[in-house]
Amino acid sequence: MAEPKFKRILVAIADPSAGLNKAVRRAGALAHKTGASIDLLNAMPSPVSAGILHAESERFTRLEAEENHRLLERMANRLRREEIIVTTHVETGYPAHEAILREIRLTKADLLIIEARKHNLFARLLLSQTDFELIRRCPVPLLIVKRTAAWRRPTVLAALDPFHANDKPSELDGEIIAAADAVAALVDGTVHATHVYRPVLRVIPGMEMDAGLVAVIPAQDRAYETAIRRRFRDALGRHGIPRKRGHLRCGDPAIELPRIARSMRAGVVVMGAMSRSGLKRIFIGNTAEQVLDSLQCDVLIVKPPHRQ
Question: Which residue range is the domain that position 278 belongs to?
Answer without folding.
Answer: 147-308
